[in-house]
Amino acid sequence: MQKLYSLSIVFLFFFTQFICAQQPAKPNAVEIYNQIQKLNFLGSVLYIAAHPDDENTRLISYLSNDKKARTSYLSLTRGDGGQNLVGPELRELLGVIRTQELIEARKIDGGKQFFTRANDFGFSKNPDETLKIWDKNQVLSDVIWAIRKFQPDVIINRFDHRSPGTTHGHHTSSAMLSIEAFDLVNDANQYPEQLQYVSTWQPKRLFFNTSWWFYGSREKFEAADKTNLVNLKIGTYYQSVGKSNQEIAALSRSRHQSQGFGSTGSRGEEDEYLEFLKGDMPKDKTNLFEGIDTTWNRVKGGKEIGDILYAVEKNFDFKNPSASVPELVKAFALIEALEDKHWKTIKSEEIKEIIAACAGLYLEAVADVQEIIPGSPLKVKIEAINRSNIAINLEGIGSVPVYINAGQKSIALKNNIPYTTTNTLQLSNDFDYTNAYWLNQKGTIGMYKVDNQENIGLPDVLRQVKVGFWIGINNVTIPFDRYVIYKYNDDVKGEVYQPLDIVPAATSSIAEKVYIFNNDRSKTITVKVKAGKDNVSGQVKLAVPQNWEVSPAEIPFTIDKKGQEFLAEFSVSPSEEASEIDIKSIVTVDGQTFDKEKIDINYSHIYKQMVLKTAEAKGIRLKIKTKNEKIAYIMGAGDEVPKSLAQMGYEVQVLKPEEISTEKLAEFDVVMTGIRAYNVVNGLAFKQNILLDFVKNGKTMIVQYNTTDDLVTKEMAPYSLKISRDRVTEEDAEVRFLAPNHQLLNYPNKITSEDFKGWKQEQGLYYPSEWDANFTPILSANDKGEKPKNGALLVAKYGKGNYIYTGLSFFRELPEGVPGAFRLLANMLAIGK
Prior knowledge:
The protein is of the alpha/beta class. The strands form twelve sheets. It has a seven-stranded mixed beta sheet with strand order 4-3-2-5-6-10-7, sandwiched between helices.
């Protein structure tokens, strides 16, 4: 078989939006037909809310799959400020996970996904605080950018803009920004810098996705005036796929695994209500698109395209989809000639993939490695196969977007006979490393920094390596783009696809993220150097301020094989005075400096993600006294508190619920449960008597926060305790001591107001609001304008021991190296001594 020209000559690399590496779509006839129906609908809806999980997947699925509308979810944040039920990742790493979960959800319900640069900094009680921390002007700019780019006919808000203070401040802010953007998006004087990429746009109407919940009860909602509401019947049963709309929506929502939002689908008729806010109210209150032309007549030159494509839809042969290819190709050529760039771009991409699906056209570019450094040769296996009787030619493979034939003869792709070739291409030295693009620059507490306007809002990692296939059908050349991916066979999972990552020649990581120096003695700090290629030699060192000491100054290393690691040990001595420093790991190879840590995030429900962060840890010279308590830690939803306890010098053992027994607990002085343990660890329901007996016999139990969701046992504490949604979100809120003489505030460390300075994101959450008189409240604090919250730290004597319940956010403060959190926890562990 003839070999096409060398890829190394004609490859062009550039940034573009990347769809997750996954097994290529292989749609069946029903799915192809559904896409043809969507091809013939020229209408769009944008759903707007604040976080991953805020979206109404029932409505998104209905609009996408029943109405065939282009439907997208604009989540203002990536969910960085929440908790993680599948692992220890928090903050920006959690944002990466939740980004992927949203992408996976949209694959199921048929929507698209966008974001703004807003950083989820944690719970906020009012929009004033939210918009101050976010930088309202930037986020409003991003909302307007998303609207101008997507050009929705209809916008739907998840939340009510008129009820500040009744829900999460991020929620209300998302609605307020949507309301404001609706009036500004068509004004060329607003954010004019965007107009070199997009045009102004005016949506037809704006709604609020209300429900009985916003009215306080079902009864109040039933009695409410619904004159201003649109009622959609969203309980569609899709016979061709055997699922109800709600079942599809539940599958979509269940992708939010890091939040524990597994959902059970329902069946039968169901109503969704949309309150009209702005624009033109539809006369037909069951039709969102009433008065909007959603046919091909919408665009100049569209009638001829519509005549072809409506016939394709009507005459579609489910037994032979390839019969539609000739007419689809005619329509493609006409779409390419449209003056309307917006719909031309959208429908051109849609119809190309439909043509490929109808013809069984499979195009793939597979690298022989999953990771590669800039400047390296890369072997790529190309596969192209036509699984139809349509005459199809492979006219060229090469650079994107310019077609270069290079004088090569095209190759006929005969029915079901694959064309394969392997080429080696040379990556340039100036490639950027693979990373979540919004993490490439240092942002603020409330905003990620993205300078390239065209990248703002894109959901996924930006990939660089892409192959163009030029396919000829009926004298029409159709360009197809495919990203170079990596795949392998797993003995259990079978074929596994992963993205191609561009990595540094060397990365490094420091063993712990926080090092506590509570005396003058030095500590050994281990640095792990990992090779991104074969035969890496260089030096690694730790960078610390001048009043700290590191020995040796640097350590040479040689690593033979890519992926292998080298461990370097340094002795670090602290300053005499109390201080907090950044300890940075720096690797030098061939005169080039590398200061990044490579973090792989690998969960079965999302595709593998690689994040590059500065390789650093925090060193804290802390005046803290600790005892020698042995601690049994029972993990909950996932945190890194055990590592922090070990850094403090404690002996810590993580126990599984089935390991809890009277005999086993006799080895320990303290039992500590992780965050939300009584929400997610079912086995605790059968071990509570053993744990409370442990306390009764003279030991200490510390329970970290749990939510108001279902608890695995009502007997979580030895006395009555009612958890609420009370929290103090202002991390700098004044802390008052309710029991200043209590041991928790005095031994072995004297706790003062200074110990509550520098806390991150929040002071605490889900505080108890009611408790038995046997509990002593220790602390009081509140956000501005609110009543004091006294349930942050409660202690009760039980038998000979002590039971402590706390909603303080130790799971955030300890990994961040907040000194006061370590000092207070040391006192909690030492109670009774």
